[in-house]
Amino acid sequence: MSRLFVGTTKGLILIRKTDEKWEVESVQFKGLPISMIHYDTYRMTWWVGLSIKHWGPKLFRSEDQGENWKETPVPQFDKGMQVKKGVPATLKLIWSALATQSGRLWLGTEPGGLFFSDDHGATFELCRGLWNHESRPDHWFGGGRNQAGIHSIVQDPRDDSCIYVGVSCAGVFKTEDNGISWEAKNKGLKAFYLPNPAARYGHDPHAMKINATDPKVIWQQNHCGVFRSIDAGDSWTDITDNDEWGRYGFPIVIDHQNPDRAWIIPAESDEQRVAKDLRLVVCHTDDGGKSWRKITSGLPQENCFDLVFRHAFDRQEQRMAFGTTTGHFYISENDGEDWVLALGHLAPVHVVKFAPDA
Fold it and tell me: CA-CA distance, 74 to 165, in Å (whole number)?
């Protein structure tokens, strides 16, 4: 049985495929906005973040594949902490997560706090090394959100202590000592909205993925194009297609068995935030970004206003899925070559995650 977790602004939808048909298995947290979904493969635990207008962020976990959920205390900034002078540090959003083999759970938040738990979410501690980084007070700022936020946390699969985070807006930061010290990894990135596009800080990596079999290879769909590193983040190369498809967009998925393959879903621009040229298109490269191919089979090619957010695109072997801000949910069974509208009339989709095969 194949299953998907789909996080929308109105609840968590569990979708399954039986008899060649995708259908809704259940709706949980009905009416509440889902901000994060993560699966801890080592402890077989699902984590879900909620962003509730009246009650603030919430965190839940499930140890039975989403049948039941238990609320966990959310991380908190210490009283008196400030994002910058006069702006209190108050948790607004749980945006990303990463569970490591050693048992640590990392959470990325808005404002740009990175928290960790070594007791399965019973307690959380702020990663002071990143929070106290010299760049944060003057060079971290909000882009699409009011304050800087940590949306991507990825790990070198060979080393639990080597972690990368993507911060909007600040850039990419790396630790090799489990969060004690951090170094900016933004060489080669471009931020055309800054007075100096090659500035050390202030970049906006919309989504970041690290290759599991060759972790020197890291990809990102950035506010200003598609970038790839082949030296563990020490430098980045702009691999945006010459026709500018991919110059702006949010999600990226990769092939963990082949470090040269990736897929993106371009958007029009920061100002417009609709499908590029009002066409829903998946772009694919199998040569490390030297060339890109547009895939349109099964996707609307006119008057399409669908936007796909950074966490709303996922891949599992030959199967791919994404959801849009207009509540459409698409599935491909052949690595993105052909697409089918599996569900419509959903609330805006923010997160899509394949569940491991039962």
Answer: 20
